[in-house]
Amino acid sequence: MSSNDAVEDVQDQKQSAAQSTSSSAKAFISGGFGGVCAVLVGHPFDLTKTRLQTASPGMYKGAIDVVRKTLAKDGITGMYRGMVPPLLGVTPIFAVSFWGYDLGQKIIRSFTPNRTSQTFSTTEYAIAGFISAIPQTFVAAPVERAKVLLQVQGQGGTEQKYKGVFDVVRGLYKEGGIRSIFRGTGATLARDGPGSAAYFVGYELTKKALTPAGASSSDLNLGAIIIAGGTAGVAMWSIAIPPDVLKSRIQSAPTGTYSGFFDCARKTIAADGVAALWKGFGPAMARAFPANAATFLGVEASRKLMDMYF
């Protein structure tokens, strides 16, 4: 190899590294922006889902009854109770998720250096999606713990124990240290691992289906992005509800109620039947399309804006 070839090789490596760093940064930022959009659109649905999942039998007749009773007691602001934790945590949660998805794709490419096509298979999209959930879980679990506790307090005449998110974190740390704050981490991964795989597969395959022959999916209009994003949400929540129910119960129950994920599943089924694992399915699915359409719309719009300037 000549000295000129060596210099060009070094320059190519530096350029590739710079592009990789830029891609990761853009994925992180756009994911955070998309997450904020998701919370603003989807939180009332999420609150309804969580209350259905954690309420004692007979407290609510269904999702509409949750909304009616919440509005009667707390007004419209009651539908946004517990929104601060996800709003504060949503930027790192979604940012890490989309960064993790970008990382997952890079890992797959590193293991397939001789691939003949840059287009991923469905399995590869699923693997990259699952990988995205691993780092995301360590951010999502404590945020979900605080959110759930704020969402369920006050229902059924229970006391208003916490004044806000920081009061929750302070109380949990005093109660059981870091371990208490991160309760439900395993259940969160059990939900988000398969869920994220379905999420990104649903998005990518829908984009592919909506892309005209000979065109690029990066050129899809906003309407197509909304459809693909909404479909991704539906794909995720169609399989994520059972572990989400268990996660909500583990995170909202008094200390010592459950010894773990499988103990919660066993006790939940014994007490309320298998159907209990699907509590909150209606609100979750009602939220899935609009919230995730907003997510990907925010992600794609912010990504295109960054691509214009960086």
From TrEMBL:
| Record protein name field | Mitochondrial carrier
* Solcar repeat residue numbers: 22-107, 120-209, 220-305
Any one GO BP annotation for this protein = carnitine transmembrane transport
Q: Which organism is it from?
A: Schizopora paradoxa
User: Per its UniProt record, what Gene3D superfamilies does this chain match?
Assistant: Mitochondrial carrier domain (1.50.40.10)
Q: Which domain of life is it from?
A: Eukaryota
Tell me what topology the record assigns in the membrane: Multi-pass membrane protein
One GO term in the molecular function aspect is: O-acyl-L-carnitine transmembrane transporter activity
**One Pfam family matching this protein:** Mito_carr
A GO CC term assigned to this protein in UniProt: mitochondrial membrane
Q: Which InterPro entries match?
A: MCP_dom_sf, MCP_transmembrane, Mitochondrial_Carrier
Q: Supply the alphabetized keyword list.
A: Membrane, Mitochondrion, Repeat, Transmembrane, Transmembrane helix, Transport
Please state which protein family the record places this protein in.
Answer: Belongs to the mitochondrial carrier (TC 2.A.29) family.
| Protein's cellular compartments | Mitochondrion membrane
**Main localization category:** mitochondrion
* SUPFAM superfamilies named among the record's database cross-references: Mitochondrial carrier
